[in-house]
Amino acid sequence: MKGRKISLRARIFFSMIILTIFSLLLILFASYLQYNTQSEDYNLRRLFRKETQVKTHLNYLMKRDSAFQKISQRKAHYQQEFSSIATIHKVEYALFTLTGQPIFYSYAEMGETEDIYTLSQEVIDDLYQNQSLRLLKQNQAEKGKFQSSYSIMADELGQPYAILYFPYFEDVSFSTTELNTFLTRVYQISLFMTIITFSFAFLLSGFITRPIETLRNKIDKIGLLKGNERVSLENASKEIDSLVISFNSMLDALEASAEKLAKSEREQAWQEMAKQVAHEIKNPLTPMRLTIQSFQQRFDPSEENSLDKLNDFSKTLIEQIDTMSRVASAFSDFATLPQPNILEEDIAEITRLATEIFENASIQLDLPNKTILWPIDRTQWIRVMTNIIQNAIQAVPQGNTPIIELKMRATKHNLNVQIKDNGTGIAPEDIPRVFEPKFTTKTGGMGLGLAIVKNIISSLNGTINFSSSLEEGTTFYIDLKRKYYDDI
Fold it and tell me: N or C terminus of the chain: which is more exposed, having fewer CB within 10 Å?
């Protein structure tokens, strides 16, 4: 079982929605990356600026006292000065000798387990190997991740005299606030854009698919024998306009083909009819010819019973001529039924009268007791009843008594007739051909009876069907509907 297919309009609608949502997510992701990069650059610049300020202040202090190379010996003297620098610039920092011994901490009291604050030789080596004599490292502490800067302090002559350790905890308040503000605005814009996109996608998908839907409706109404309407669309796109042109061209070709087909079918029908008429008329001509030749050879006017022979000969010819007349009449009736004379008739009474001519069959009637007025052609309805009952009687095997059950039921707008026989039934392979012209299972007859019956029932705005079982019989069902809902 195939799954339900998604319409083009739904595909366009959801494609636009998905594209919009994807674009918004992409904007959010790009913004997040941008703000991360911006925050990192901001903090690196801030770290460098603070570090430079501390270096400048320290160099000024050492230059003032000419203590560049004496800083390690006079560290106790400068403790207050060093603390003031940390307070003024609102930073934490530390000074170490070139061998990594501590000179000053702003984040601990001097003398507290100074070995903990000794620089490792690995850091010192990395620092000297760096061309800029400056080293950045990512550290982890109780306060979280932070960056630290190691740089070599040099005097006026470029001689190193100390190592500055500068820990820097990133100031994320600015970037976080700005990012939250931006994301809030993006969320608001995204919500607004989503609503706009939903509306626009709905309208645009309808606008795009409306010509296709119009074309589909026209295609649904195409019929071989219908007057098909051409499609005309204003302001259609190039592709839709090409499709419309192709559709209209197809209709022209279809109508031309239908006309040729109808002409061919008419010619074939008349050819078949001519063959059938010729065949049916030829059948009695052969015995007529033989009878005339035999009569011509054997007739002797001087014989005593010559008059009787002449009468027999005449009777035989008249019978064959009547046969040909019936053939011609039957084909004429099938080809063009007489114009019906529709009147409000008592259909129950007419049906009863139509069954009285069958004396050799047991016909069980179940008709309404009241008068049932129905718009019918009296002659045609009698023909329908007699034809179906005659076929039912002929379907009963010889030696059995035909039992025909005829039931009629009527409402204000519908009339149902059921005719059941006790015949041999219809073989399954013959069921599809019962109402076809020329089809018959009898040795006599032309197979036009039920075809004429079906035409009459159709002209009365009705249908005829049947059900059959072998060796059990056949039941015909006639259903008529009023064209105009008059009171009975």
Answer: N
